[in-house]
């Protein structure tokens, strides 16, 4: 029931800005670990296919795009949604999906910036939670297994990957 123009800031605060701030705060401790990893929870709704604008697609896929660039562009998206100009600027009409797209891109930028860490984003799949009105295909515990495996047991995964529950079935 929240009007779209009012959804961007709280969605990005929870899904993107909060993720970035917490990760940045924890990095000094994470770097001390022997098998240091960062695993961010994303979603299939944040895949590149939600972008119709070629310049935005190029921005998100460029190896030159930095974490700071992504923070600035995320702020631009929030402002554009609030002013009702997001589609004119090439952004999709989804706050949740766009926030998760930023999480995936930021995780890849982090992996480029800190190659000594394993940095991946993962999608736990549709889970039966309040957020999905209990309509997911798996329990929250089943979804948590994807996050747990991404953060602990996938020693042979490449850094900068987007890991889904389907991908985990391959191991």
What does this 3D model show about the protein?
- The structure is a single chain.
- The chain is mainly α.
- 49% of the residues lie in helices and 8% in strands.
- The protein contains 6 helices and 3 strands.
- It has helices at residues 8-30, 54-61, 67-83, 95-113, 140-152, 165-168; strands at 37-41, 118-123, 162-164.
- A 3-stranded parallel sheet has the order 1-2-3, sandwiched between helices.
- Strand 2 (118-123), helix 5 (140-152) and strand 3 form a beta-alpha-beta unit.
- The longest helix is centred in the first third of the chain and has 23 residues, at 8-30.
- It is globular.
List keywords for this structure.
171 residues, three-stranded parallel β-sheet, single chain, 6 helices, 3 strands, mainly alpha
Secondary structure topology:
Layout: H1 8-30, E1 37-41, H2 54-61, H3 67-83, H4 95-113, E2 118-123, H5 140-152, E3 162-164, H6 165-168
Parallel strand pairs: 1-2, 2-3
Helix pairs in contact: 1-3, 1-4, 3-4
Largest sheet: 3 strands, parallel
The mean pLDDT is 86
> Which runs of at least 5 residues are low in confidence (pLDDT < 50)?
none
Helix content: 40-55%
User: Could you tell me the strand content as a percent range?
Assistant: 5-15%
Number of helices: 6
- Rg, please? 16 Å
Instruction: Please give the order of strands in the largest beta sheet.
Output: 1-2-3
Beta strand count:
3
Overall 3D form: globular
Distance between the termini: 41 Å
Secondary-structure-based class equals mainly alpha
Order of helices and strands: HEHHHEHEH
């Amino acid at each position: 029931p929240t009007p779209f123009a009012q959804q961007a800031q709280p969605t990005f605060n929870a899904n993107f800005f909060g993720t970035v701030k917490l990760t940045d705060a924890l990095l000094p401790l994470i770097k001390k670990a022997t098998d240091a990893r960062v695993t961010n929870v994303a979603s299939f709704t944040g895949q590149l296919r939600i972008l119709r604008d070629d310049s935005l697609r190029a921005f998100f896929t460029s190896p030159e795009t930095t974490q700071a660039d992504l923070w600035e562009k995320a702020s631009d998206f929030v402002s554009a949604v609030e002013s009702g100009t997001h589609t004119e600027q090439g952004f999709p009409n989804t706050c949740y999906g766009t926030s998760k797209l930023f999480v995936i891109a930021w995780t890849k930028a982090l992996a480029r910036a800190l190659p000594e860490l394993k940095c991946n984003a993962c999608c736990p799949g549709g889970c039966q939670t309040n957020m999905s009105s209990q309509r997911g295909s798996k329990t929250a515990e089943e979804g948590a297994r994807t996050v747990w495996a991404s953060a602990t047991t996938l020693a042979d995964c490449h850094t900068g990957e987007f890991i889904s529950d389907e991908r985990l079935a391959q191991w």
